Amino acid sequence: MHARLHLPRPALGTCIYLGVERDTRGLQFTDAQRFNYYPASPLPMISWTFQGDLHMVQQPTSASSAPSLASALPRAVLAGPHRKPSASWSPGAVHALSVSFYPEALSALLGINVEVLVDKIVPLDALASGPLLARLLDVGMRDNDEPFSQIEAMLQPLWRNLHDARALPNLHGWVQSLAVRAAFSKSGAGIRRAQRRFRDWTGQSYRDLQLFVRTERAMAHASEQPPDAALDLAALAAQAGFADQSHMGREVRRVTGIPPGRLGELMRTDEAFWFYRLMMEHFREPAASRPG
Question: pLDDT: is 193 or 47 the higher one?
């Protein structure tokens, strides 16, 4: 196992979106294979590095400059929603876990404002202190075989007291459920108030999040095709709700940094795009076999 996707148990279906674990110990990777490419995401993420080091790739400030590496990340960090794709690199073997949370859930658990964390990565211990934060930090001090299960066991009794246990099947389901809650909140009706509540909960607008919903839908439809089959991009754009193929190309590039056709090729051939392959396998898995 060098890349593994974790889906939450049903009791945490409105808290955790998913987890991804990367373990390259014992593998002989080239420098290029030790990159990790991620799409933009509307969801905050807590990451723990148990062994090895991870450096974020800093994009150049001018066309004449090359990308550079930031200092090694702390052992536990919180990344807010990111509006642009990102990449990291490890100088050697690494074992790390990242868990994506629904933003309103993480706000409720930690008492933080996700809106101020958009496009930021902060050390987890820079947040306000508390018993849960201390336990989350402690996760990074141990390297065990099932860190995701440890986090689930920690959060389930806390989440049970905050929300009902039900699963949100995808980003579309989450965005729609929030829109309904915002529109019918007890704090008052009105479009402006609903929009403000939506941004308070997620750090982004309803319109902003539709970009991620359409892109997720495109990946889900693409996963239904045989892995080596050439995609009909025009048909895929129509299925996913884009105006046309060009519209899909622009928005997929905003989320991933790469045109759809090229992205498909990299997922098939480049180790550094392991996260995208995991997501495609997730979409390809029959819905009946998923938790929740």
Answer: 47
Under 8 Å between Cβ of 3 and 97: no
Residue 192: Cβ within 10 Å count: 8
pLDDT for residue 292: 41
pLDDT tens digits, residue range 109-127? 998 889 899 999 999 999 8
Q: What is the pTM of this model?
A: 0.87
Specify which residues 18 forms β-bridges with: 100
Handedness of CA 242, 244, 245, 247 (dihedral sign): negative
* pLDDT tens-digit readout, 200-209: 888 888 888 9
**What is the distance between the terminal CA atoms of the chain, rounded to a whole angstrom?**
24
pLDDT confidence band for 67 (50 / 70 / 90): confident
